[in-house]
Amino acid sequence: MSDSVISEIRRDHILKLLGSGKRTDGRKFTDWREISVSTNCIESADGSARVKLGKTEVIAGVKIIPGTPFPDTPNEGILTTGMEFLPMAHPSFEGGPPGDDAIELARIVDRGIRESGMVDVSQLCIEPGEKVWMCFIDMYALDYDGNLFDTANLAAVMALKTATVPRVQYGLGDSDCPLPVTCFPVSVTTYKIDNTLILDPDFDEEHISSARLTVTTDDNGNFRAMQKGGSGSVTLDELNQCLDMSVAKGKEVRKIIG
What we know:
The chain has five helices and twelve strands. By secondary structure, the chain is an alpha+beta fold.
């Protein structure tokens, strides 16, 4: 995620610890850092959430407005996901339009939400072929200390879970209603450092990793989306380990904040 350079001494220290089955902060390879979630934190949004995973922090807001459907899906609402890395989040982040890293992250979060069917877009149809609800998910990295992928996923999902369709505001109903949410998709990103697989790396661990695999599961542990990143390879055995960890960690996360 960053081009910053860490010292060879620090790198060797991390590798030595991993080789002995340890991490710099004492966590196990499959442990996430502490999760903190607050919802309805943006008054002007139709749904919002602020999530901290360790020191990494992402805020997400949902805005829902009426609009025209796509020609090939005239009976379905529209979901759009965006991500910005705010310069205050890390020295390596710069202002301006979203870069490739931010675009990739937004697409991965979007795919997990879309492929899981989290939002029943058929219920967002107002008038077939003419008018539907358009749901915009905007995510902002506030602090970056590794694993923005899973932090952003949780922020977006929790914001959607709290979202309300503003029917009264647009004269399209006598009362507002909850966004039609069907499940709680959770992404779990496994990082490979040499031949070791770990979850939820801090900045230094993430920086020296050679590959990552983000797997999103639904409430039933079904695989809904998968995306590999990094220049390194993942063996078939490692892939199976990643899949197993994503199911187990997904269940754990849902119990904590579901």
